[in-house]
């Protein structure tokens, strides 16, 4: 099974994920990485969930819930975005929401599963990620998964009153 690992599995969004999604999308501490500056209403997120079944070829994105196998609890999200079937590429972003689940290998396992999914089922040639220079945890995660730093976007992200560089990482499918 492509979306099941040893400690976690990835599943589609369900209507029951509304509270979890609201907590994440309205957490100002993650707005920088999600490029958000305003909170989302329950109504808007409900609509999003109602349309989450739409095909990645149509909406160019796919959000999966990262669930711990033992408890079946949702612990984070992994997103495929900017899917480009013509040029065979897709972006990836990941978040483990609670500190309780960080540093336990869940993100690494989820990233490996989604890489396999993207290369196998979407037949992409490359997967990319955008990571700020100070996000050392994500830099390590993606480098350990084989991603290479392919460039620096100088002063790309305005955080507070200071600009940050953002690195562009790629994983090219050599098969």
Automatic annotation (TrEMBL):
- Identify the keywords attached in UniProt to this record, alphabetized: Acyltransferase, Transferase
Q: One Pfam family of this protein, by short name?
A: Acetyltransf_3
Which InterPro entries does the UniProt record give?
A: Acyl_CoA_acyltransferase, GNAT_dom
Q: Which GO terms describe its molecular function?
A: acyltransferase activity
Species of origin reads Jejudonia soesokkakensis
Superkingdom is Bacteria
The top EC class is transferase
Stored PROSITE patterns: GNAT
Quote the protein name from its UniProt record.
GNAT family N-acetyltransferase
